[in-house]
Design a protein that fits this description.
The chain is of the alpha+beta class. It has one domain. The chain is 47% helix and 8% strand. It has ten helices and eight strands. The strands form three sheets. It has a four-stranded mixed sheet. A two-stranded antiparallel ribbon has the order 4-5. Strands 6-7 form a two-stranded antiparallel sheet. Helix 1 runs antiparallel to helix 2. It starts with 7 loop residues before the first strand and ends with a strand.
């Protein structure tokens, strides 16, 4: 009896009900081009709102506590323009990272009819995700929050309420960079404010309360002044009283230091992933999924949108990817990568996967 070679379907889970491709529901009619992408996840939405709130809080403290009351007009204008520009770019990058399709694979295309229409050669392997019932291209992974397979998925970030993938990694990198820059800028301005205004503010407050700077430890308030209520007034360095100013600045320092460290680490991690052409998930599976990496400069240019220019820093300019393939083309492209002997098929097989023959 002669065995006829057939193509194979490889699932990512050991669940019998997912092993037959004909059980997949046909894909829905595609939405209009440019449809907004938004993940309805409560935790992600809350984190995104908190992100905007923290940036706007920093805006409030920088403008109304430090810059507007300052008597140095040039200092206020220059720092105000720089900080507001960086804050705008940070929020714009956050919005693009949150509302951009990270590279979702079409759902429901792993039907028996569709697979048969591809006319695959015997021995070719097709990867199928049983959760979204889609044929997975190379380097795609399923996100349990987005409930979709994402091309070149690095991780799911609740702060942008989205996956970081092929289409929005640039925006996420810019978001982390601009947040780190405004955090550093805010910390520097707070330092200058304490150096130049802290002593003056508290001296004015003590003098207004009847205590002089020369003898603050020995001076006694006249009896007639004790009967009058002491007023805590705003000073020339701030629109708020010194105690309120100190509290606002301490909170800003804590926020700036925390997010400077966090976003700097994330920025470095993402740049390293782009330069090495290896996502976070692939780094964890490095021992099990060896593959050929692209050159660093080519990967960077593809992620940021062509040759080096100011558009690399522009959140309104997208990444540079080849024209997207339709379902048939990229499925054939993925299948052709495994059109070799059984040795290559074994090397690409995951430890928790199962191989099924479509009789």
């Amino acid at each position: 009896m002669m065995l006829v070679p057939t193509h194979h379907f490889r699932d990512i889970e050991r669940k019998p009900e997912y092993l037959q491709p004909e059980k997949c529901v046909p894909p829905p009619y595609p939405g209009p081009v440019g449809t907004m992408w938004f993940i309805r996840d409560g935790c992600g939405i809350a984190c995104a709102v908190v992100t905007w709130f923290l940036v706007l809080y920093a805006e409030f403290v920088v403008l109304f506590v430090m810059l507007i009351p300052s008597r140095d007009y040039v200092y206020s204008v220059i720092n105000g323009i720089v900080f507001n520009l960086l804050a705008f770019l940070a929020l714009a990058s956050h919005g693009r990272a949150m509302l951009t399709d990270p590279g979702a694979v079409p759902k429901g295309n792993a039907t028996k009819e569709f697979i048969e229409s591809l006319q695959l050669k015997p021995g070719q392997v097709v990867y199928k995700c049983p959760k979204c019932c889609s044929i997975k291209p190379d380097r795609a992974h399923h996100c349990s929050v987005c409930k979709r397979c994402i091309r070149k998925m690095d991780h799911h970030c609740p702060w942008v309420n989205n996956c970081v993938g092929e289409n929005n990694q640039k925006y996420f990198v810019l978001f982390t960079m601009y947040i780190a820059l405004i955090s550093l800028h805010a910390l520097i301005m707070v330092g200058f404010h304490f150096l130049h205004c802290f002593e003056e503010d508290w001296t004015s407050l003590l003098q207004g309360s009847g205590v002089t700077r020369a003898a603050s430890a020995e001076a006694r308030v006249p009896p007639q002044d004790k009967k009058q209520p002491r007023k805590v007034r705003a000073t020339e360095c701030s629109s708020f009283s010194p105690p309120t100013t100190v509290i606002l600045l301490i909170l800003l320092c804590f926020e700036g230091l925390l997010f400077l460290i966090f976003t700097s680490v994330m920025f470095g991690t993402q740049v390293h992933s782009i330069c090495t052409d290896e996502t976070g998930i692939e780094r964890l599976k490095r021992k099990h999924q060896p593959r050929e990496h692209r050159r660093s400069w080519k990967a960077v240019k593809e992620a940021f949108g062509g040759d080096f220019s100011l558009n690399w820093l522009n959140p309104f300019s997208g990444p540079c990817h080849p024209e997207p393939l339709n379902d048939r083309d990229w499925v054939r492209q993925v299948a052709s990568m495994s059109d070799t002997d059984n040795t290559e098929t074994t090397e690409r097989k995951d430890s928790d996967s199962v191989e099924v023959t479509d009789e």
